[in-house]
Amino acid sequence: MSQESDSRRPRGTTGRIQQIVRVMVRYGFSEWVRMLRLDRAVPGIRRLTFRKGRAGVPEGASRWEIVRLALEELGPTFIKLGQLLSGRSDVLPPELTRELSKLQDSVSPIPTQEVTPAIRNEIGRPIDEVFRSFDEQPTASASIAQVHRAVLRTGEVVALKLQRPEIREIIEKDLDILAFLARLAERHIHAVRHLEPSALVRQLRRVIRN
Fold first, then answer.
1. What is the pLDDT of residue 55?
2. DSSP state of 8
3. Contacts of residue 178, Cβ cutoff 8 Å, sequence gap at least 6
4. 106-122 pLDDT, tens per residue?
5. In b/e form, how buried is each residue of 134-148, taking b as 16+ CB within 10 angstroms?
6. Which residues lie across from 151 on neighbouring strands?
7. Average pLDDT for 86-101
8. How far apart are CA 3 and CA 160, in angstroms?
9. Which of 63, 71, 129, 203 has its CA 20 to 30 A from that of 177?
10. Helix (H) and strand (E) counts in the chain
11. 3-state DSSP call for residue 107?
């Protein structure tokens, strides 16, 4: 069975899966690592320390808050997953969906010195040929993109959305990993089958790509 699971693991994802497992263990979800049998399916997982306790978790945090904190640390794809699950009060505990609804999609902005070159590369022209003015400081910054205020040469005020560098590759890899984890969950954890994990990941993929 481990060979079958391993053969279906997306190529080039071992390091990222190990990173995900480290976060899961640190937040007290090592039992889920075992139930998914990741220690058999992914090289190097068995060497990770499966500690008891929740290192670095705020004292007094509820188990649902801990789920949210773990998703936030794992990055934009997992934040989007949590936001999607926050609408599933039909199958998830209301305490969990309320906590997931608090997931924040705001992160530190792209460094200012990278903004202008990135936009110039995208439009293929100097910025001052297209915009009368352009604010290098974003009005909003999220996990996938950030928004800048600009004024076109025609005088029209516009919002310019700039994707984070390499975010597409990062998210596609995480989506492939989530699809892999969903298959393991459906195979090994009967209690989550009613959530249809693989269908959920397909829905997440559509939402994020849109």
1. 61
2. T
3. 77, 81, 201, 204
4. 677 888 899 999 899 88
5. beeebeebbbbbbbb
6. 133, 157
7. 93
8. 47
9. 63
10. 11, 4
11. coil
- Coil, helix or strand for 198? helix
Is residue 56 classed as helix, strand or coil in its secondary structure? coil
Round to whole Å and give the CA distance between 87 and 63: 19
Model confidence, pTM: 0.80
**DSSP string across 124-183:** TS-HHHHEEEE-SS-SEEBSSEEEEEEEETTS-EEEEEEEPTTHHHHHHHHHHHHHHHHH
- Whether the CB-CB separation of 113 and 106 falls below 8 Å is answered with no
- At 53, list the tokens: 């306790």
The C-alpha atoms of residue 169 and residue 81 are separated, in whole angstroms, by 17
The C-alpha atoms of residue 32 and residue 24 are separated, in whole angstroms, by 8
Provide CB contacts within 8 A for 15, sequence distance 6+: none
State pLDDT tens for residues 18-53: 999 999 988 989 899 999 999 888 888 877 766 655
Residue given tokens 């188990």 in the structure block: 63
Amino acid at 112: T
